[in-house]
């Protein structure tokens, strides 16, 4: 397997650790305006490919959307649901 293919596989593996609980996007607090719920009851981001940057919550709070790995050592409502926190034991 060439290195690029290997990196792609690793990135996919990392993406699949997300349980779509929406908690890191404020689902159980004041959700980001871009957080949506699909028919299966899983959360998704409607601007996923270009999500990083200044964002706004439903109540109008401004915040920066960043990579999950940058906030793993912080806490948010229902963060025990997070697949990355479970894996990294940052609970
Ligand atoms: S923009 Fe960021 S915080 Fe908002 S729903 Fe998308 S991933 Fe979550």
Question: Any descriptors?
Answer:
4 strands; alpha+beta; two-stranded antiparallel ribbon; 2 helices; binds iron/sulfur cluster; about 90 residues
SSE inventory with pairings:
Elements: H1 3-15, E1 35-37, E2 43-45, E3 53-56, E4 62-65, H2 83-88
Antiparallel strand pairs: 1-2, 3-4
This protein binds iron/sulfur cluster (SF4).
Structure description:
By secondary structure, the chain is α+β, with helices and mostly antiparallel strands. The protein is 21% helix and 15% strand. The chain contains 2 helices and 4 strands, in the order αββββα. It has helices spanning 3-15, 83-88; strands at 35-37, 43-45, 53-56, 62-65. The chain has a two-stranded antiparallel ribbon. The chain has a two-stranded antiparallel ribbon with strand order 3-4. β3 (53-56) and β4 (62-65) form a beta hairpin. The longest helix is centred in the first third of the chain and has 13 residues, at 3-15. The radius of gyration is 14 Å and the shape is globular. It starts with a helix and ends with a helix. Bound molecules: iron/sulfur cluster. Iron/sulfur cluster binds next to loops. Iron/sulfur cluster (SF4) binds at residues 25, 32, 34-35, 45, 47, 51, 55, 65.
What's this, in brief?
With 91 residues, the protein is α+β, with helices and mostly antiparallel strands. The protein has two helices and four strands, in the order H-E-E-E-E-H. A hairpin with a 5-residue loop joins strand 1 and strand 2 (43-45).
